[in-house]
Fold this sequence. Notes:
Blueprint: E1 7-12, H1 18-27, H2 43-49, H3 52-56, H4 61-77, H5 81-86, H6 94-97, E2 111-113, H7 121-127, E3 131-137, H8 140-144, H9 150-155, H10 169-190, E4 195-199, H11 200-205, H12 207-218, H13 227-230, H14 253-261
Parallel strand pairs: 1-2, 1-3, 3-4
Amino acid sequence: MTTRAPILFIGGLGGSGTRAVAGAVAALGYYPGGCLNVSNDNLIFTELFKRPDWLRAGPTPRRIGDRLRLFEAVMTGGIGLPQLLRAPSLWRYRRDQGRGLAGAPGSLGWMTKEPNCHVFLEAILDTWPDAAFVYVSRHPLDMAFSDNRGQLGNWSWLFDMDPADWPSPEAAQLEYWIRTQKRLDALTARYPGRVIPLRFDAFVERPVDELTRLVEALRLPVPAERIVPACADVIRPEGIGRWRERDLSAFSAEQLAFCREAGWEA
Length: 266
């Protein structure tokens, strides 16, 4: 087992369960940042990267990498004058962020939970050779019936789709899930061992087993006795399996077939 934990990012579609996963991982000893909202989203990552217009403008890989390095500096050392000169909007976060990882001695390392970070998955793994990405997914039909469709509006263009082309918001949401899943499959093959899919449905049913699997996959120096208490706040939400009570006629046969091929009941 290694003595150094990887830089860790946790992302997925909005409403996929990243909050619960991130809470358990932070409880193992990862530093999640000082500026979090009630969903444990890293607000500094949101400030710097949840910018569809910026991404539409076509920043070069180098510019994206430079912004990720700025984020690293904030996460590891806080927000000082050099960071403010590059991103003045970070001023309001400086107190809560404090000294970053430098002010959290004993931490395994630093982590970032922000659902939208999966949009930058390639850039993240290319910027930090020691980084790993936990991609949280939830039953695609449960996701289709979720009211959390912010990513569909912000990023569907990245996946060559217009939500208006689909017969219903639910069908568009499912198609967004399908296209992000296809990209995930390709990136998992491209970055072996560094993209770790985690199914939220399994996590809430067997949190200790799934967190143990994640610890082993990341080769974290975490004693086994810390895993059970880290799962103390994991609960099974009522929305699990809601798709069974809904009309599936809005979805195409091809969409449902893809869900089954991906290993989900549909």
